[in-house]
Specification:
Involved in the assembly process of the P-ring formation. It may associate with FlgF on the rod constituting a structure essential for the P-ring assembly or may act as a modulator protein for the P-ring assembly. This protein is mainly beta. It is about 15% helix and about 40% strand. Strands 1, 2, 3, 4, 5, 6 and 7 form a seven-stranded antiparallel β-sheet that branches.
């Protein structure tokens, strides 16, 4: 059975608001409250309340860890029909996640246990819809394109079903190169991006060697192309010796002083 009952809205100022939709008639409720004494919550209502709170807490913690801003979440709870066979629990329910701290936003599972004398246990699934401002391509971008600030935009998107991930901060992607074609308004993920090529094969590069505070510079020829942080072979023009160097900037590689000679 599905319950779409909870909507979480977190503005940039950090306050949390809960909005509930009540379908019962207020007049009918008032009449019933005078006609009969209150009855204890059913097992279904107990489970619904506890799982709803546990899922909200898990998503709120993920939002803090991932630095989400201005997100909204709707929770879809799936409670097994067998819960109707159980009596209300006389003690607070115990709720746990089988996967521990690992959070799969596509599908959250909670094990709920009643630890009273006639206890019971059910597994509840929660499928959240989480809307968050993520980076998207303003227009279709081709493979090899170097992303600039004008290529991207922030738009709300349901991230729950994004298998490849998402990015929320422009500084994380500007200057990186696309590994594959990205369609207009397609969410951008880090798996689609690569550092730009900073050294081309056969390019004349500046070799910087340092050791114990002593720095020396010379020129060399790159034997292969490289991105920032990659190790490549470079032939020292002075000694004609080929050494291993690390790409550090456009047309610049670094190596140890002993390797340069």
């Amino acid at each position: 059975m599905i319950y779409r009952v909870l909507s979480l809205s977190v503005p940039r100022y950090g306050k949390l608001f809960f909005r509930f939709t009540l379908t019962a008639s207020l007049l009918s409720f008032a009449a019933a409250s005078f006609a009969a004494p209150p009855t204890p919550a059913s097992a279904r209502k107990q489970v619904h309340s506890r799982v709803q709170q546990a899922a909200s807490d898990a998503i709120r913690q993920e939002a803090q860890r991932s630095r989400w801003e201005d997100y909204q979440a709707k929770l879809n709870l799936f409670i097994p029909s067998e819960i109707s066979q159980y009596a209300p629990c006389g003690v607070p329910l115990t709720v746990s996640m089988p996967n521990g701290e690992r959070l799969d936003l596509r599908r959250l599972r909670f094990d709920v246990r009643c630890e009273s004398a006639n206890g019971w246990e059910v597994a509840v699934t929660v499928k959240p819809d989480i809307y968050l401002s993520v980076l998207m391509a303003k227009n279709t971008l081709e493979r090899g394109h170097v992303l600039g600030a004008s290529d991207i935009t922030l738009k709300k998107f349901n991230i729950s079903n994004l298998r490849s991930g998402y990015v929320t901060h422009p500084d994380d992607v500007v200057g990186l190169t696309l590994k594959r074609r990205v369609r207009e308004l397609q969410p951008i993920s880090m798996s689609q991006l690569d550092s730009p090529v900073m050294v081309e094969r056969g390019q004349r590069v500046l070799m910087i060697a340092d050791q114990d505070g002593v720095e020396a510079r010379t020129m060399g020829i790159a034997s292969k192309k490289g991105r920032k942080g990659e190790m490549i072979k470079v032939k020292n023009e002075s000694s004609e010796r080929e050494v291993t160097a690390i790409v550090s900037d456009m047309g610049v590689v670094r190596t140890s002083l002993s390797a340069k000679n």
